[in-house]
Specification:
With 701 residues, the protein is α/β, with parallel strands linked by helices. Helix content is 34%, strand content 21%. It has a 7-stranded mixed sheet with strand order 9-8-11-10-12-13-14, with helices on both faces. Strands 20, 25, 26, 27, 28, 29 and 30 form a 7-stranded antiparallel sheet that branches. Strands 2-1-5-6-7 form a 5-stranded parallel sheet, with helices on both faces.
C-alpha cells in the first residue's frame, strides 16, 4: 500500500473539516446518545452547515429537521448515522448514491454479533466498493477536530467544554478511550489536533485515517489505542511515512487472541507467541508500544527528541542524576526490569564534576543529595552530564523540592532543555506546578518511575521502518481460497536451493525398496519417510538415526514400512529420504510465516530440545537484510556461546545471518506462494564452514 497525498488530503478534509454535516436519526433529546452530536457541535461553535435528519420531527433541539438525506439543500460531505442497526445498510447505500464523501456509523451489531451481523458488514463493504463512499465504523463514537470546532461524537465525555487544542492526533479502536485521553490530556496540558473512534474498521482503518493526515503541519505526533492489528498493511505503510516525516507514533496495544497464532504445520507461530508478534510488528514499524496508559501522552515530548534506531545501533546508554537516592534507585530498577541498564558516569565525567565543586561517589547514579536542590548545583551537573559521551539520554530525578521549591528544583532542568542530548525529568512527589512548568517548556516529565522507564525503553526499542519493503501478503486474494498444501522434504529442499539456503546432501528412493542403492555419501546416515502427508515424521516413527552400513539401511527401510503401517495406516508415503549424519556446534530453528494481521514474519529460535523449553527467540517483519539478521542472532541468548565466549569454538554466524535473510525473502517472492516455511534444525557449523538445513517444512498455496 502506498500513500497518496492528494487522496489523503481530500479524505482528511471531509473527515475532519467538512463544510457540511448531516446527522441521520438526530434526537430532540440532547441527553440521549443520538442527541449529543448536535448539542456538541453547537456548543463548540462548528462553523459549517449542520443538517438534523429525522422523518418524525419538524424540529430537532429547536432547529429545522429534514425528512431524508435526499431532501437536504446540498449533498453533505460527512454523514453521522445515529439510527439503529437495522437501517444502517440502507442509509449508507443512500449516502453512496448521493455522493457523500464520508459516513460515520454509530450502531453496533455487525460481525461481532454473529452471522446476521457479518452479512450486514459484507453489505457495507459492497456499498463502499461500488460507490466510493468512505466509511468510519460501525461502532464508532465519532470524529473530533478541536481546531475546526467539529465535535461529531456521541461520547458523553465531550460535554465538557473547551477541548484542548494541540498537535497530537489520536486514533482508537475504543470509542470510550478518546474521551479518556482528552481528560488525561487536559490534566497534563496536552492538546489534540484530532481524535477518531474507528470502530470495526469495515472500510477506513487506523492506518489509512492517520495516513490521510500526514502532511498536516498542525500534527506532529500520533497516539493509537489498538485492540487488534487488523489492516496491518495500512498501519505498516502509515508508520513508514510518519517516520519519513519525523512524526513519532506511540501505541497502547491490547493482547491478541490465541486463534490468530494457531499454526497448521510449523512451530513458528506458537513459539513466537500471540503478543510477541504484535510487539515485533510495532517495533519494526517504528511505533513505540507504551505499556502504561498514563505514559501514553507523557511519551510525546521525548518521542520528538529521540531518533529511530537503525539496525545494529549501539545499545542506548542512560545517565541518572538525582537529589534523592531512593527515587533514582526506583528508576534504575524499572529500567533494569525492561532490559536497559543505567550507565555509570565515567572517571572523566566524575573529575569534571569535582572540578566545579560537585563531589559524588562512583556508581550508576550521580547523587547530588540535598545539595542538588540548589540551582547552581543541579545546573552545573546537568551541563556536564549532557556533554558526557557515555550518555545518550539523561534523567533528572527530583525529590521533595519539586513540590516545595519548584523554582529551585525545576528551573535548572528547564534551562538545560535546549541541549542536543535529550533530558528527562522524573518527579518523586506529586508536584502539579512543577509538572505544568516542565510540560509548558516541552521537557519530557514523568510522575512515576514505572512510566518514566516504560517510555524510555519503548522509544529506544523502536526500529526505523524506512528500509522495510512492502510485502506481497494479501495481494493474491484468489489464491487464499485454494486449500494450502505441504511439500515433502525433498521438495522443500528444492525450494531452499532457489532461495540460497544451504542444506545437507540427500537421496530419495522408493520406500518399498528391498535393496538400497549405493549412496553418493558416506555412512552413517539418517533415513526418513518423505511424504507431504506426514509433516511431523517422528510422531509416526518415521525417522531412524545412525544407520552405519548397507544392510542396516535395508533393515531401516523395512522398519519404516512397519512403523507407518502401524501408526499411519493408509497415509500416502512412497518415498524415503537418506542423508549423511552431520553434527554442528549448535542447532537453530529458522521460521517464516504470514501472520493474518502482522503479515510476513521471520523468526530465529534456539533449536533442539531448547526450542520448546526456553522460547529463546527473535522476531522481525520479513524480509530482513543480513545486517538485521545479525541483530536477531545477537538477541538469542543460546547463540552467545558461538561468539567465542570463554574459549568455546566460534560458529559460522555470518552464514547463519545470510540463511535467515535468504529465507525471509519469501515475503517479496509471491511466485512461490509460501504461507509457512520452517528449517528445523539448521545446523551451525564451525566458523567459515557454513550452515546446513537437515529438515524443512513448507506450506504453500
Amino acid at each position: 500500500m502506498t500513500y497518496s497525498t492528494t487522496t489523503g488530503s481530500a479524505l482528511a478534509q471531509a473527515l475532519l473539516s467538512p463544510r457540511s454535516i448531516a446527522l441521520v436519526g438526530a434526537s430532540d433529546d440532547a441527553s440521549k446518545t443520538a442527541g449529543r452530536p448536535l448539542q456538541f457541535l453547537r456548543q463548540a461553535g462548528f462553523a459549517g452547515a449542520v443538517y438534523p435528519v429525522n422523518p418524525r420531527r419538524a424540529l430537532v433541539q429547536g432547529e429545522k429537521a429534514w425528512a431524508s438525506l435526499a431532501d437536504l439543500p446540498e449533498v453533505p460531505e460527512h454523514v453521522f448515522v445515529l439510527t439503529g442497526t437495522d437501517s444502517v445498510v440502507e442509509t449508507v447505500a443512500e449516502c453512496g448514491r448521493l455522493g457523500v464523501k464520508v459516513v460515520t456509523v454509530l450502531a453496533s451489531g455487525f460481525s461481532e454479533s454473529g452471522s446476521a451481523g457479518a452479512a450486514r458488514e459484507d453489505a457495507l463493504r459492497a456499498i463502499v466498493r461500488e460507490t466510493g463512499v468512505r466509511l468510519v465504523g460501525p461502532s464508532s463514537l465519532g470524529v473530533i477536530s478541536p481546531r475546526t470546532r467539529m465535535l461529531l461524537t456521541a461520547n458523553a465525555a465531550f460535554a465538557e467544554p473547551d477541548i484542548p487544542e494541540g498537535r497530537v492526533f489520536v486514533a482508537s479502536h475504543s470509542g470510550s478511550m478518546i474521551g479518556a485521553l482528552v481528560s488525561r490530556g487536559r490534566a497534563r496540558g496536552v492538546g489534540f489536533a484530532g481524535l477518531v473512534s474507528v470502530g470495526n474498521e469495515v472500510d477506513l482503518s487506523i492506518g489509512e485515517i492517520c495516513a490521510a493526515t500526514l502532511d498536516d503541519p498542525g500534527i506532529d505526533s500520533y497516539v493509537l489505542f489498538l485492540e487488534s492489528l487488523h489492516h496491518g498493511a495500512a498501519l505498516r505503510s502509515f508508520a513508514r511515512e510518519a517516520a519519513r516525516r519525523g512524526k513519532p507514533v506511540m501505541a497502547y496495544k491490547l493482547g491478541r487472541s490465541a486463534a490468530a497464532a494457531e499454526m497448521v504445520v510449523t512451530h513458528t507461530g506458537a513459539l513466537a507467541g500471540e503478543d510477541d508478534i504484535a510487539e515485533a510488528f510495532l517495533r519494526d514499524c517504528g511505533i513505540a508500544r507504551i505499556g502504561i496508559l498514563d505514559a501514553l501522552l507523557e511519551s510525546r515530548p521525548l518521542a520528538l527528541r529521540l531518533p529511530l534506531r537503525a539496525p545494529q545501533a549501539a545499545r542506548p546508554r542512560v545517565g541518572i542524576v538525582t537529589t534523592t537516592g531512593g527515587g533514582a534507585a526506583m528508576v534504575v530498577d524499572q529500567l533494569g526490569i525492561r532490559g536497559l541498564d543505567a550507565e555509570p558516569a565515567s572517571a572523566a565525567t566524575l573529575a569534571q564534576l569535582a572540578a566545579v565543586g560537585i563531589q559524588v561517589s562512583p556508581g550508576r547514579i550521580v547523587d547530588l543529595t540535598l545539595a542538588g536542590a540548589r540551582y547552581d548545583v543541579m545546573k552545573g551537573a546537568l551541563d556536564i552530564l549532557l556533554q558526557a559521551p557515555e550518555f545518550d539520554l539523561v534523567v533528572a530525578v527530583v525529590g521533595s523540592s519539586a513540590r516545595l521549591q519548584p523554582e529551585l528544583a525545576v528551573k535548572p532542568i528547564i534551562d538545560s532543555a535546549g541541549s542536543a542530548k535529550p533530558l528527562v525529568a522524573m518527579l518523586v512527589p506529586e508536584a502539579p506546578q512543577a509538572i505544568a512548568q516542565l510540560t509548558a517548556a516541552g521537557v519530557p516529565c514523568f510522575r512515576s518511575p514505572e512510566s518514566c522507564a516504560d517510555v524510555i525503553t519503548a522509544l529506544f526499542n523502536r526500529r526505523s521502518p524506512l528500509d522495510l519493503l512492502d510485502p506481497t501478503w494479501g495481494a493474491d486474494e484468489a489464491g487464499l481460497a485454494t486449500p494450502p498444501v505441504n511439500l515433502n522434504e525433498a521438495q522443500a529442499y528444492e525450494l531452499l536451493d532457489q532461495l540460497g539456503v544451504p542444506h545437507a546432501a540427500y537421496l530419495t528412493l522408493p520406500l518399498q525398496s528391498e535393496v538400497a542403492p549405493v549412496l553418493p555419501f558416506e555412512f552413517p546416515v539418517v533415513v526418513k519417510v518423505c511424504s507431504a502427508d506426514i509433516p511431523h515424521k517422528t510422531e509416526v516413527g518415521g525417522v531412524l538415526l545412525n544407520i552405519r552400513d548397507g544392510a542396516s539401511l535395508n533393515a531401516a527401510l523395512a522398519t519404516l514400512r512397519g512403523n507407518l503401517a502401524e501408526r499411519a495406516p493408509g497415509v500416502p508415503a512412497e518415498l524415503a529420504l537418506v542423508q549423511p549424519m552431520r553434527l554442528g556446534l549448535a542447532e537453530v530453528l529458522v521460521g517464516y510465516r504470514i501472520d493474518p494481521d502482522a503479515g510476513p514474519l521471520i523468526m530465529l529460535a534456539a533449536g533442539g530440545i531448547w526450542t520448546d523449553l526456553l522460547r529463546d527467540r527473535s522476531i522481525r517483519l520479513a524480509p530482513v537484510s543480513v545486517a538485521t539478521a545479525e541483530e536477531m542472532i545477537s538477541e538469542v541468548r543460546a547463540l552467545k556461546i558461538l561468539t567465542g565466549l570463554r574459549g568455546k569454538p566460534r560458529g559460522d554466524l555470518k552464514a547463519l545471518a545470510e540463511a535467515i535473510s535468504a529465507l525471509s525473502q519469501l515475503a517479496i517472492q509471491p511466485e512461490h506462494g509460501v504461507l509457512e516455511a520452517e528449517v528445523n534444525p539448521l545446523m551451525i557449523m564451525g566458523e567459515g564452514q557454513g550452515v546446513l538445513a537437515v529438515d524443512a517444512l513448507i506450506l504453500k498455496r
